[in-house]
Amino acid sequence: MAAPDRAPELRIATPAPEHAGEMLTVQRAAYVTEAQRYHAPGIPPLRETVQEIRADLAGVGPALVARAAWLGPRLVGSVRGRADGAAMEVVRFTVAPDVQGGGVGRALLQALHAAAPASVGLFWLVTGSRSDDNLRFYGAAGYRATGTVVDDAGVQLVRMERARDPEPPQP
Ligand SMILES: CC(C)(COP(=O)(O)OP(=O)(O)OC[C@H]1O[C@@H](n2cnc3c(N)ncnc32)[C@H](O)[C@@H]1OP(=O)(O)O)[C@@H](O)C(=O)NCCC(=O)NCCS
């Protein structure tokens, strides 16, 4: 009798430069929906090249934190954080369309928050002002809107910020 199918386990780790191609594939698939929503095919995440992602991943350290999520062997999402002093910008946060809504994004964002260097006290990001799912997602993750900006593709964005959680007391 065949063994019952088990859902593959979610694993979150630091991606290496050789994961750049898979990350770009997922990123493009995930951001197409946003590009269609705003009739803006030139949004920055869709213009990013595999070389640029590879260079980011070759330079991970205190200023650039990256996390990717795998379900079994398949890379299904990633996120990067760029630290500048006490603030870290969350960028390129993507989950493959067919697994969105299953908790992978929440786990990735938590992993990024936890991996930020100790100097970081604030996380911030921008998201589309009409992207209700994203606004709800970030609100549930503790982010609050602090202003609006227009990007170079002409899309109106909301800036959101969240303070870092205090460290739990050491036993
Ligand atoms: C935003 C994103 C990374 C979230 O990842 P995810 O794995 O879908 O998120 P989770 O499953 O952990 O969380 C689901 C929650 O997020 C919200 N959500 C955001 N986008 C969603 C989507 N496309 N499908 C389903 N839920 C979505 C839902 O409101 C849901 O809240 P609920 O649990 O109260 O119903 C992912 O949807 C994505 O890649 N979107 C396209 C690219 C993008 O817009 N990135 C962010 C740019 S700022």
What does this structure look like?
This is GCN5 family acetyltransferase. InterPro entries: Acyl_CoA_acyltransferase, GNAT_dom. Keywords: Transferase. By secondary structure, the chain is an alpha+beta fold. The protein is 30% helix and 32% strand. It has a domain at 10-123: Gcn5-related N-acetyltransferase (GNAT) (Aminopeptidase, 3-Layer(aba) Sandwich). The chain has helices at residues 20-37, 44-47, 50-58, 104-115, 132-140; strands spanning 10-13, 64-71, 74-84, 87-95, 122-128, 144-150, 156-163. It has a seven-stranded mixed β-sheet with strand order 1-2-3-4-5-7-6. Strand 2 (64-71) and strand 3 (74-84) form a beta hairpin. The longest helix is centred in the first third of the chain and has 18 residues, at 20-37. The site of coenzyme A (COA) has 22 residues, from helix 1, strand 4, helix 4, strand 5 and helix 5. The site of coenzyme A has 22 residues, from helix 1, strand 4, helix 4, strand 5 and helix 5.
